[in-house]
C-alpha cells in the first residue's frame, strides 16, 4: 500500500483530470472508475484494473476482494480523495483502468449507432439499453459524447464492460456493417408497433439514434434500409433519444425471443 498526502503528486493530478475532464482519457489512455458499483461491474466482466485508490477511511475497512483487485493500491486522506472525486458525495474508492484500444467494427453484431448524440446521460442510458437487450456493439459518430467520459460511465452503470465500443467514426465507416440499418424518425416510416405485429423488424440490425435536436442526419437516413416511428398518442412532438432507444431495442429483443 502506498500512502499519498500531497495535492501535487502526479497520480493525484492525473486522477483529478480523469474525474473532471470528459476527454482526458483520450490523452492519458486511462479511465477512472469511481465507486463500488462501477468497480464491481468491471471485475464481473473480467476487467483487471491497473491501480486501486482508496480514501483512508475506506482502506481501513476494505475487504480482501478490493485490496487484491489491482497490482497496486494507493491510499489518500479522505479530504484529498474528495478533491479528486467527480462526485458530490465521494465514493471513497475507485479503479484506474486502461482504455480498451479502439477495435475494428464487428460486421454482424447487432449494433446501436449514436449519430452525434451529445448528452452524456442519454449516451450512458443508451449503452445500458444496448447491453440489456442484446446489442453488443455501439458505434459513435464524431460529435457524440465521449463514450468513456466520467458522466457517461456513471450513467452507463457498468454497461461499458459488456459492449464492443468504437467512437470518433466518420459516417462512411458504417459501410463495414453487414446488416440492415434502421433509422429512428419522428415523422416518417411505419410505426414500430405495426412492424412488431407483422414480425417485420430485421434482426440483426443497426439502429440509428440521432442528435437530440436534429435527429438522424440525412446522410445516414438516406442509406437506411428502413425508417421507423414510435406512436405517441399523447401528442408530444418527439421522444427523448434515450427513451426512444429503449423502446426500439426492446422491440428488437422481443422479436428475437419470439
Beta-strand percentage?
15-25%
Mean pLDDT score: 93
Q: How helical, in percent, are the residues?
A: 25-40%
How many beta-strand runs? 11
Across the major sheet, the strand order is 8-7-6-10-9-11
* Low-confidence region ranges: none
Distance between the termini: 53 Å
**Bulk shape:** elongated
Rg, alpha carbons: 20 Å
Helix-strand sequence: EHHEHEHHEHEEHEHEEHEHEH
Structure class: alpha/beta
Total count of helical runs of at least 4 residues = 11
Largest sheet: 6 strands, parallel
Explain the overall architecture.
With 258 residues, the protein is an alpha/beta fold. Helices cover 34% and strands 19% of the residues. It contains eleven helices and eleven strands. It has helices at 10-20, 24-28, 36-44, 56-59, 64-67, 78-84, 120-132, 150-156, 192-197, 218-223, 241-257, and strands at 2-3, 30-34, 51-55, 73-76, 93-98, 111-115, 137-141, 164-169, 181-184, 206-210, 226-228. Strands 8-7-6-10-9-11 form a six-stranded parallel sheet. The protein starts with a strand and ends with a helix. The mean pLDDT is 93.
Give short descriptive properties of this protein:
alpha/beta; 6-stranded parallel sheet; 5-stranded mixed sheet; 11 helices; 19% strand
Task: Itemize the secondary structure elements and their pairings.
Layout: E1 2-3, H1 10-20, H2 24-28, E2 30-34, H3 36-44, E3 51-55, H4 56-59, H5 64-67, E4 73-76, H6 78-84, E5 93-98, E6 111-115, H7 120-132, E7 137-141, H8 150-156, E8 164-169, E9 181-184, H9 192-197, E10 206-210, H10 218-223, E11 226-228, H11 241-257
Parallel strand pairs: 1-4, 3-4, 6-7, 6-10, 7-8, 9-10, 9-11
Antiparallel strand pairs: 2-5, 3-5
